[in-house]
Structure of Arginine ABC transporter ATP-binding protein:
Amino acid sequence: MSDLIPPATPAPLVVIDRVGKSFGPVEVLKEVSLTVAAGDVLSLIGPSGSGKTTLLRCVNYLETYERGLITIAGESVGIEQLPDGRRRRKSDRQIAALRAQVGMVFQHYNLFPHLDVLENLTVAPCRVHGEALGPVRERALALLERVGLADKRHRYPSELSGGQQQRVAIARALTMQPRLLLLDEVTSALDPELVGEVLDVITSLAADGITMMIVTHEMAFAREVSTSVAFMAEGRLIENGTPEAIFEAPHHERLRSFMQRYR
Ligand code: ADP
């Protein structure tokens, strides 16, 4: 009978499987395992130095990792695991193809200062990926509209506020039509009064089903926007679950004391 067959659960978009990484003698990621389904928003929280940014950077192979494996849509990230157990770095072309699917936005927006806002969005799809300017321009204008900056399209980054620059950086990452967006403390460098406008943009992207992994210290935001929250400390994943479980019923003592500081 059909109800004896378990419903098919779609494979997660991102699988992080027992990932370990060291910087020299220092082990900064220890057997971290996490999954992110398409449409999910995973927030990584935890004390400074716990490995959140490093983990995020491993997901688009800005950092290599020595143990475990990360896959995106079934494709391993950066590393090929050979049948005899050895590991081999993938080719530059394979790594570039992966990065085209994974957008990343940093704490410091890193916009190109000599290009206007619209050119900041169109330059990578056109010059790096050889797409025709017409459709890319249309896509870019729609994204600028979405982050509320269509009227600034001919401004240069230096003419914009920090919050506006960060919204441009988010639109730029989306112009590549990534399957996954990584956001690394994107509000940490902003004046407090500019944080809200950037968080609002991210919240609207989440509502539209954009899959994201977010490193943040904004606990109220993480609670509101995430489908799941992962707490890290000293390179380990300590606890993960729904925002309700993590914020209202944390199990681990470490997480409880971390939360105390945000109440
Ligand atoms: P978090 O994002 O949780 O603050 P990070 O991932 O930035 O933590 O850092 C985790 C640990 O890795 C820290 O001890 C940090 O000093 C170390 N680390 C990060 N990047 C480097 C690097 N490029 N070289 C050496 N150590 C690093």
Summary: The chain is about 35% helix and 25% strand.
